[in-house]
Every structure is written in C-alpha cells, then in structure tokens.
What we know:
This protein has helices spanning 17-26, 55-66; strands spanning 2-11, 31-39, 44-53, 71-77. By secondary structure, the chain is an alpha+beta fold. It has one domain (2-77): Alpha-Beta Plaits, CATH 3.30.70.1150. The protein has a four-stranded antiparallel sheet, with helices on one face. Strand 2 and strand 3 (44-53) form a beta hairpin. It is elongated.
Amino acid sequence: xxxxxxxxxxxxxxxxxxxxxxxxxxxxxxxxxxxxxxxxxxxxxxxxxxxxxxxxxxxxxxxxxxxxxxxxxxxxxxxxxxx
Length: 83
C-alpha cells in the first residue's frame, strides 16, 4: 500500500461538484482524510484528499476525476510501502 494525496480544483460551474462527490464516495476505502476550501468569490473550490492504497487504485481515482469538465487534478504517491 502507498500513501499519497489527490489535489482537486473545481473551476467555474460548480454543478460538477456532485459528480466529484460521487467518485470520492466510490473510492471511500482509499480516503484517510479530506479538506475542502471553497473560494466562492472567485468561483473556485479546492479539495485535498489524503489516500492510502495501491498505486493502481489511486491512479484510477485521479484519472476518473481528471476527465471531468471544469476539474483539474494532481496527485502524488510516496515510494514507501506501508501496512
């Protein structure tokens, strides 16, 4: 298992936020923590998600989110295996 994070930025139309939430719920077994920072004045929402799981599942989560319109995603995973 790897430890990492997925950074999500939702820009503009926030209707996609419900789809982002559905995807995060689908991968709930990976999530160890989450922080959301809305910036409503600029119509931007930032979400940082701490994850623990296989590289493949973390990449699948980031890839699914990254295919959404108005959503930007970056992820990083440690090279240390954890239990």
